[in-house]
Design a protein that fits this description.
The complex is a heterodimer. By secondary structure, chain A is of the alpha+beta class. Chain A has five helices and five strands. Chain A has a five-stranded mixed beta sheet with strand order 2-1-5-3-4, covered by helices on one side. The chains are: A alpha+beta, B alpha+beta.
Chain lengths: ~160, ~290
């Protein structure tokens, strides 16, 4: 076991972990933040996407010790005192969800994009979400939801 | 498992030496982690170099573009110096996997993983790059052409050697490069075929060229017949088409159930080589 110091959704943890586990295992099994999903387990579906030090990563491919000193955001960190984030609200509003398994990863990829670029083009949205696979809805509504969330966030000055 | 976070390249080499072949260097880990998860590989000790300060960053030094071995694909893809001197490398590093993969994967790792059609490695292939490698015997310089020992096998030993950085001679205004891929989809898929090329065009003639193709052998394969043919020639549509045909003579085509039959690849390769040359001619303003 090794000591890990990491901030997840604004909360600092200093804990003992098995260094052979993945970041996603730590998030789900140690912190019980099960919003982050494991789909393919090899970086090809994006269901495990979290934001690490400001960029989107596949948490199934990140060894847990790489998170030492890092700032991690997961889907659970998005809502503000029970109020959903605009990206979450737009996913619901636009019907960009069916089974929901890919949704946390999609939203985290979208959040990483909008944190850097509040006025993305369709191509920029596609590049940012290209690593997230949905097997239910297709991608049109997801794209719409991200673009509408961006517009709302611009208007709300977020 | 033991996990060591190296703060410098020297510290990484020290840790490797201490463990005497039992520890593995890992940068982004996007290939190594999959192999560990699928139990295709087992490692007792991982040396993480992503925090090694002297292996990060991208800079110009002594007429070379220097890319730290821990620089991510995203950092290379979005770097203004890379975009200015080697737009084809910016394109290739921006084609790897998905954004999440590019945010952790490295160009050095892409070469060491030694998959033939790796987009980053292919874009780098014609640029005459050299790898600065730390070993217990001292620092050695390995040219790109000597980095591959087989499919999926690097000539370097990541249990004993550390790539510190990649050095690329800065291009002159009359030297241009291209990278193109024939793809089923843009994200999360290897190309059916990819071609990269660089050439120097002086006084209306090709002074030299380097054309690389994949996946048609071990690592990026040079189209030597086409390169020889192009020497001293003007870049006309006929010449570029002929070079495309000749390129196929250096390629060994294999069928892949997902990414095209060998017949399809044989038919398509000359077209891609021609398009890469046309892209270069366009950049040179000779078309």
């Amino acid at each position: 076991m090794e000591n890990l110091n990491v901030t997840v959704n604004g909360k600092f943890y200093s804990v003992q972990v098995d260094p052979s586990i993945r970041l996603v295992d730590f998030i789900r099994d140690n912190l019980f933040l099960t919003g982050t999903k494991v789909g393919c387990g090899k970086g090809e579906c994006g269901a495990c996407t979290v934001i690490m030090n400001g960029v989107s990563v596949n948490s199934c491919l990140i060894p847990v010790m790489r998170a030492e000193g890092a700032d991690i955001e997961t889907i659970e960190g998005l809502s503000d005192g029970g109020r959903l984030h605009p990206i979450q609200e737009e996913f619901i509003e636009k019907g960009a969800i069916q089974c929901g398994f890919c949704t946390p990863g999609m939203i985290m990829s979208a959040k990483a994009l909008l944190d850097q670029n509040i006025n993305p083009t369709v191509d920029e949205v596609r590049e940012a979400l290209g690593g997230n696979i949905c097997r239910c809805t297709g991608y049109v509504k997801i794209e719409e939801a991200v673009l509408c969330a961006a517009e709302r966030m611009r208007n709300e000055g977020k | 498992m033991k996990y060591v976070i190296a703060r410098t390249a020297g510290e990484a080499l020290g840790a490797l030496t201490l463990e005497n072949g039992k520890a593995l260097i890992m940068a982004g880990g996007s290939d190594i982690m999959v192999e560990l998860i699928e139990e295709k590989r087992s490692e007792d000790i991982l040396i993480d170099v992503t925090q090694a300060k002297d292996m990060k960053g991208i800079r110009v030094e002594n007429e070379h573009l220097v890319i730290g071995a821990a620089a991510t694909m995203t950092e290379i893809h979005t770097n203004p110096i890379v975009k200015e001197y080697f737009p084809s490398l910016a394109k290739g590093t921006g084609s790897v996997g998905s954004l999440q993969i590019r945010n952790s994967a490295t160009l050095a790792g892409n070469v060491v993983s030694a998959q033939p059609a790796a987009d980053g490695a292919m874009a780098l292939a014609p640029l005459n790059a050299q790898f600065v490698v730390l070993t217990t015997q001292g620092t050695k310089i390995v040219p790109f052409s000597e980095m591959y020992a087989g499919i999926g096998k690097s000539s370097l030993d990541p249990h004993r050697e550390v790539i510190k950085e990649i050095r690329i001679p800065l291009s002159e205004p009359d030297e241009k490069a291209s990278f193109i891929r024939l793809e089923l989809r843009k994200s999360l898929s290897l190309p059916m075929l990819s071609v990269s090329a660089m050439l120097k065009y002086k006084e209306g003639r090709v002074e030299w060229s380097r054309i690389c193709m994949a996946p048609v052998g071990v690592g990026p394969v040079r189209a030597l017949k086409a390169e020889e043919y192009l020497w001293g020639k003007e870049l006309t549509p006929t010449v570029m088409a002929k070079a495309g045909e000749l390129a196929a003579e250096n390629a060994a085509f294999r069928s892949n159930p997902l990414r095209g039959s060998k017949e399809y690849r044989r038919h398509s390769l000359p077209v891609l080589v021609r398009r890469a040359l046309e892209d270069i001619a366009d950049q040179l303003g000779v078309l």
